[in-house]
Amino acid sequence: MSCQRLKDWLDERYDFEEIASIAKKKLVPAHKYEIWYYTGGIAMFLFILQFITGMVLSFYYIPYFEHANKSIIEIVTKLNMGWFFRSLHHWGAQLAITVLFIHAFSTLLLKSYRKPRELLWISGFILLAISIFFGLSGYFLLWDERAFAAVRVATGGAGNLPVIGGFIKAFLRGGIDVTGDTLIRFYAFHVSILPLLTLFLIGIHVLLVQYHGMSVPLSQEKKALKGTPFFPNLFYKDIIIWLLVLGVVVSLATLLPPEIGKKADPLAPAPENIKPEWYFLFLFQTLKLFPGEIMGLNGEMIAIILISCGILFFFLIPFFDRKSNAGEKSTVFTWISVIYLLYFVIMTVIGYLT
Amino acid sequence: MLRKILFACAFMLINTVTLWAQQETIEVFPSAPYDRHIIFQCLAFFWMAIIGLVVIVRMKLKEIERIQKMGIDRENKDIPLLD
């Protein structure tokens, strides 16, 4: 069948002209903060990259504790371009989480969560949490000393939550301690449960963006804004940015391939100076601030409760910020957002340097 | 002479002992100089391709913006039909 015949065949059945006219009619507001609109597109592009490289790696990875570490060594050392795909997957994950944090904080500072976009904020926040869990579960699949110790600390920390902590810890570990069962569980999360949840949530998130349109910051709302057509103008700009991001990921993957540590031994003590992945450093550093015991109570438990309260408040900000919902300037929540951002950045830097 | 040989042997032994004790590192990047050269060359070509594509897309975008500014991209409602 020639291209024209195929096109005619499809045109008879589907109204592509209508779809194209919708894309052309869609306008994106043009203002001085429009650069932050691109972070969502970059995150989606990186997710696609992660899906592709993850699928390639899953052909060769063996999710069994005896072979997991060895299978990664074989992917890196024996397979043609194996090192590159593994490195691409690693750096894609790092950049995706970085971009998601930037996307979340830009949404917070520009008050894009305000009415009627609360569900957009909620779906985005859950996507960020899923991405972090993606990172942790993927890190554990290495089955090396550091990953093993990091998961033991992370799941142990979750276990300090009152009432539900014990259940979460046992559910994540698949037992009382981190074992080969945990590896199988994390593998299932990493390759089936989390990707399905991510696809579902991305679908909802994108649909909601289309439904509500792009959010305009309060300071720009009163100005007479011009709209830029999404197609082709914004679409081409997105392509330029995606190409540059692809270049950065490929360069990082080539120049800084991630190391593989010694195979984990569940009976061995944790290695010295252990640090979690960078996106957990602010939590790790916060835990360090608390003494072992506060007024006879477990200090770590108090820290975990306070951190959970902080995260819950962050999650529910659209419902607390009534001024922004009413279309008024909300200085208090701007300061709260700045404090959250500074705390995250400062604690991450201190955790990285110490 | 014998002294020198003995020193050399002792030196060699000490070095080999440290090599045995050394933790095995896994090569996460091809170590052969030829492979490295090819990889870095490919990376340079990759960036050249990206820059080329970016330039082309930017040119296309500028042309679209020029046409939009002129207003000739919009459909004329009263256009006479030729057929």
Question: What is the secondary structure topology, with strand pairs?
Answer:
The complex is a heterodimer of chains A (354) and B (83).
Chain A lengths: L2 H11 L2 H10 L1 E4 L7 H21 L9 H10 L4 H28 L8 H23 L4 H14 L6 H9 L6 H33 L5 H4 L4 E4 H26 L25 H9 L3 E2 L2 E2 H17 L1 H4 L1 H4 L5 H23 L1
Antiparallel strand pairs in A: 1-2, 3-4
Helix pairs in contact in A: 3-5, 3-11, 4-5, 5-6, 5-11, 6-7, 6-9, 7-8, 12-16
Chain B lengths: L1 H20 L11 H38 L13
Task: Characterise this structure.
- The complex is a heterodimer of chains A (354) and B (83).
- By secondary structure, chain A is mainly α.
- In chain A, 69% of the residues lie in helices and 3% in strands.
- In chain A, the strands form two sheets. In chain A, strands 1-2 form a two-stranded antiparallel sheet.
- In chain A, helix 7 runs antiparallel to helix 8.
- In chain A, 31% of the residues are buried.
- Chain B is mainly α and 83 residues long.
- Chain B has a domain of 42 residues.
- The N and C termini of chain B lie far apart (107 Å).
- The chains are: A mainly alpha (354), B mainly alpha (83).
